[in-house]
């Protein structure tokens, strides 16, 4: 397995527009690339080991700050980990993401499984694959692994003039 690398910090939010504006104006984090994840754009989306069959939609915004990608996620419709997080805890730090090469993902998932840590949400967006692991009972946060594969151009950017 290659050198380990944390690549992302994610905040679950109720209003992505307001959140992008606050992070931009207060901390100077941005510009933000905005995407819609839904049944039209995400393949093989699962929640707690089951395929999600009903419509779902969540918005996400990505900004690079140094070597870390900041992610804001707003659930819009349907079942997701983000919706349950907001109901139980409110807005806040949701997960960190480690980049794992495609060739190593199955081995890493098996090692977590041997520790009793299961995948609780997963999917594919373009060439990017993502797996959220149930580390919250032990670590207090969710741990995500993924290949950080190539994704399409964003739908829009905030602020638009950047």
Account of the protein in words:
The structure is a single chain. The protein contains four helices and eleven strands; from the N terminus they run βαβββββαβαββαββ. With 162 residues, the chain is an alpha+beta fold. The chain has an eleven-stranded mixed sheet with strand order 4-3-8-9-10-7-1-6-5-2-11, with helices on both faces. The protein starts with a strand and ends with a strand.
Low-confidence stretches: none
The third-level CATH topology is 2,3-Dihydroxybiphenyl 1,2-Dioxygenase, domain 1
What would CATH call the homologous superfamily?
A: 2,3-Dihydroxybiphenyl 1,2-Dioxygenase, domain 1
Shape: globular
| Helix-strand category | alpha+beta
Radius of gyration: 15 Å
**Proper CATH architecture:** Roll
Mean pLDDT: 96
CATH C-level class: Alpha Beta
Q: Helix tally?
A: 4
Major sheet:
11 strands, mixed
How much of the sequence lies in strands comes to 35-45%
Fraction of residues in H or I helices: 10-25%
**Largest sheet, spatial ordering of strands:** 4-3-8-9-10-7-1-6-5-2-11
- Written as H for each helix and E for each strand, in order along the chain, the element string is EHEEEEEHEHEEHEE
Question: How many DSSP E strands?
Answer: 11
Looking at the chains present, what oligomeric state does this protein adopt? single chain
What number of domains?
A: 1
Q: What gap, in angstroms, lies between the N and C termini? A: 37 Å
């Amino acid at each position: 397995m290659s050198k380990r690398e944390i690549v992302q910090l994610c905040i679950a939010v109720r209003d992505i527009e307001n959140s992008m504006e606050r992070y931009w104006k207060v901390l100077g984090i941005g510009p933000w690339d905005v995407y819609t994840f839904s049944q039209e754009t995400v393949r093989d989306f699962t929640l707690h080991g089951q395929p999600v069959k009903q419509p779902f939609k969540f918005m996400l915004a990505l900004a690079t700050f140094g070597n870390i990608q900041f992610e804001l996620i707003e659930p819009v419709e349907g079942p997701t980990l983000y919706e349950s997080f907001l109901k139980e805890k409110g807005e806040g730090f949701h997960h960190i993401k480690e980049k794992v090469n495609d060739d190593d993902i199955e081995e890493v998932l098996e090692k977590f499984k041997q520790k009793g840590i299961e995948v609780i949400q997963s999917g594919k967006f373009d060439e990017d694959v993502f797996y959220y692991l149930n580390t919250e009972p032990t670590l207090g946060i969710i741990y995500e692994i993924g290949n950080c594969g190539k994704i399409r151009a964003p739908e829009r950017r905030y602020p638009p003039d950047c």
